Amino acid sequence: MTHGSSTPGRQALGKIDTTVPHSARIWNYWMGGKDNYEVDRVAGDQYREVAPTIAVMARASRAYLIRTVTHVAGEAGIRQFLDIGTGLPTYDNTHQVAQRIAPEARIVYVDNDPLVLRHAQALLTSTPEGVTDYIDADLHDPDKILQAASEKLDFSRPVALMLMGILGHIQDYDEARAIVRTLQEALPSGSYFVHYDSTDTDQSLKQAQQGYDDTGAVPYVLRSPEQLARFYDGLELIEPGIVSCPLWRPEPADAPVEKTDVYGGVARKR
Ligand SMILES: C[S@@+](CC[C@H](N)C(=O)[O-])C[C@H]1O[C@@H](n2cnc3c(N)ncnc32)[C@H](O)[C@@H]1O
């Protein structure tokens, strides 16, 4: 495990703030997990009262992660994954999906939440042939992430960069685009970019998000699908492009597939 500042256990536990809701913990709550606190459940319930679709969105985003990683590890043949904004371990985490297809896959997780750090051990259950590692770092500092990740990933070979539900936490749009560009520039040709974010396409979601941001939690900016599309500039989008996540290559068994306000896509670096 590669750390920015601390190790899991008591030290990390000391940094856990249970007075304001946290993105990773609320997301865990909406996905049906147990790793959350009262403050997260209260904020999560308030959000859901205003925007009842949020829990459906959280679960749809996990199903999308499973389908995209399956594609990238399977058909696209990628063996290295850099998953920034990992979240709390839940079902079918990136390494489990990727290593089911390719046991030799190498996965580096990155998050800046102390509770995610504390639970990181659960993410480090690699196959013997592969690798999983965890970096305690902030997406605002992509160079630090790239440097630490290069201890486990070979950046002369294709890597799948995953930014799943995290870019909304970078409040300034130009900064978010610059961070994405820095990360994408470090990848060799044949690499993949896998992403989703919640969008500003529903009024109740916008209202619920405002209430959440007012709790003192790290805010999350809802952007338009057009703004999200700029994160893919210069890359080759694979079919069906940037769409509402449930519409991204649904499994035949997924029918009926309904649109939600979380959009993403998969793109290849030429
Ligand atoms: C909405 S959750 C998504 C979790 C997971 N990627 C998924 O799709 O289920 C966003 C995650 O990004 C992390 N995060 C937010 N801001 C971050 C930052 N500046 N640097 C690193 N991680 C961050 C949060 O701690 C949280 O785990």
Characterise the protein shown here.
The chain has 10 helices and 8 strands. The protein is α/β, with parallel strands linked by helices and 270 residues long. The protein has one domain (10-268): Vaccinia Virus protein VP39 (Rossmann fold). Strands 1, 2, 3, 4, 5, 6, 7 and 8 form an 8-stranded mixed β-sheet that branches. Helix 8 (173-185) links the parallel strand 4 and strand 5. Helix 2 packs across helix 3. It binds S-adenosylmethionine. The site of S-adenosylmethionine has 21 residues, from helix 2 and helix 4.
Q: Given the C-alpha coordinates, what overall shape results? A: globular
CATH topology: Rossmann fold
The string of secondary-structure elements, in order, is: HHHHEHEHEHEHEHHEEE
The CATH first-level class comes to Alpha Beta
Proportion of beta-strand residues: 5-15%
Q: From the helix content, strand content and strand pairing, which structural class follows?
A: alpha/beta
Can you identify the CATH superfamily?
Answer: Vaccinia Virus protein VP39
> Bound small molecules, which ones?
S-adenosylmethionine
Cα radius of gyration in angstroms:
17 Å
The structural domain count equals 1
Helix percent reads: 25-40%
Contiguous helical run count: 10
Q: At CATH's second level, what is the architecture?
A: 3-Layer(aba) Sandwich
